[in-house]
Amino acid sequence: MTEREKCINALGGIVLDFARLEHVFKNSIHFVSEVPVEKCLVMLARLSYTHVVDLFGDFVLVKFRDDKEGTKEVNELLKVARDANDLRNDLMHSYWFDNPMNPAKPFFKYKMRKKLKGIYTGQMLDFSLSDIKAVSTAITKAYRHLVSFMRKHYVPNFH
Prior knowledge:
- The chain is an alpha+beta fold.
- The protein has one domain.
- It is 65% helix and 13% strand.
- The protein contains 5 helices and 3 strands.
- The protein has helices at residues 3-33, 37-44, 49-63, 68-92, 129-153, and strands at 95-98, 107-114, 120-127.
- Strands 1-2-3 form a 3-stranded antiparallel beta sheet.
- Helix 1 packs parallel to helix 5.
- It starts with a helix and ends in a 6-residue tail after the last helix.
């Protein structure tokens, strides 16, 4: 398998892992809100990942409002979840170009950023399989953190 094919395969893994993470957050809201799962999934269907994470945090922080350590634990989980989303968005919402000059880094990504006064600037960055794997690692970390949290505080056999 070429480096390019490995990168494409790893990107597919990010899509699947992130979808799993988002689903587990939605399922977790069922447990922390005590809303039946079918109703919960219908209510959450149109919310973005960021809104789902925020809603999860709102429900959970009610439980831990008088618990400093619990609040700290929740905020750390939310930070890990938001960081994973930021890394994923930065990678997935970029323009991609082949990089024929460097087989070890088979793609360029062009990231647009909005500056003050509505001016856009862009930056061309090459990236490699290890860059993609770093995003995958962040998503997996968020998933494991969430599952661990849910097992500790809500459902011992949560998965």
